[in-house]
Amino acid sequence: MIKFLNELSDLRVQISGWKRNGYIVGLVPTMGSLHNGHLSLLSIAREHCDKVVTSIYVNPTQFSENEDFYRYPRDVNADLEKLSSSNTCDLVYQPSNMYHKEHKTYIVPNGVALNLETENRPHFFDGVSTIVLKLFNQIQPDIVIFGEKDYQQLLVVKQLMRDLDLPIQIVAGKIFREKDGLAMSSRNVYLSENERKLASNIYRVLKLTRKKIQQGFDVSKVIKNGIAELGSIGINQIDYFTLRDPDNLERLTQFNKDSRLLIALYVGTTRLIDNISVPLINNGETDIEN
Ligand code: AMP
Question: What is the pTM of this model?
Answer without folding.
Answer: 0.96
